[in-house]
Backbone:
């Protein structure tokens, strides 16, 4: 009986330790993601004409919009293709970076990626009104927080969603490539609507996966792995948020 009580107490202490560690791990994931979002926003703001109040020092784009000198250098030269493709190249390089870099180095790589993404996304300020961008961002933030919280707290196993959602992402990419040639507004609307649903599902799925991965590896006590896992988790949720935001902006954003 005494042995049973000891085992029960030990199990309770272990569960409590994992619980505390999990909260700290998730806080690190969300904190790293939030810093990445802030860097993205600042980078986009710095490139757009919003960063300069002295209008004569800006470059007019002919549609009532202005760019900073750096923004003009990017969008009026072939450098724009580098800025558009750089985030894609960097995100594909995350796997190799995770194997090669330390946890802190991987975090720095993520923040550099977030800055590159901000430069790439700065073009939305030339297409949509500033009020519309802020409004859609806040709506996306509320939806993301709700979905992520549900994914973290639900007792339902949603791991089966993964393969279905990934297939959906592949289908979206194919449809977007096809629509480059077709230029159909109806197809673009459908892509945006489906994209919002897919990345909403991925937000809940990825949050639960980050949680379960931590629980499975917590017993190892590998601090280096946990540090890298927090950065990779932040990247995953960051991409879910950014994609959901872009698709919602395409659906509901007011154009200049």
Residues:
């Amino acid at each position: 009986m005494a042995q049973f009580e000891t085992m029960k107490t030990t199990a309770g202490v272990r569960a409590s330790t994992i619980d505390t560690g999990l909260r700290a791990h998730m806080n690190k994931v969300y904190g790293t993601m939030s810093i990445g979002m802030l860097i993205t926003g600042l980078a986009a703001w710095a490139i757009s004409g919003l960063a300069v109040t002295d209008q004569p020092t800006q470059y007019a784009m002919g549609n009532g919009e202005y760019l900073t000198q750096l923004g003009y250098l990017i969008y009026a030269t072939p450098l724009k293709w580098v800025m558009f493709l750089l985030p894609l190249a960097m995100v594909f390089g995350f796997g190799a970076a995770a194997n090669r870099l330390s946890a802190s180095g991987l975090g720095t790589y993520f923040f550099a990626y977030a800055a590159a993404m901000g430069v790439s996304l700065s073009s939305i300020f030339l297409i949509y009104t500033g009020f519309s961008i802020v409004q859609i961002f806040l709506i996306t933030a509320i939806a993301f927080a709700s979905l992520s919280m549900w994914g973290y707290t639900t007792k339902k196993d949603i791991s089966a969603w993964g393969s279905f959602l990934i297939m959906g992402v592949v289908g979206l990419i194919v449809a977007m490539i096809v629509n480059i040639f077709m230029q159909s507004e109806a197809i673009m609307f459908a892509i945006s609507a489906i994209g919002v649903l897919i990345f909403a599902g991925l937000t809940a799925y990825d949050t639960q996966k980050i949680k379960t991965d931590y629980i499975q590896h917590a017993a190892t006590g590998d601090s280096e792995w946990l540090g890298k896992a927090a950065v990779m988790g932040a990247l995953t949720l960051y991409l879910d948020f950014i994609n959901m935001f872009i698709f919602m902006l395409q659906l509901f954003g007011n154009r200049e």
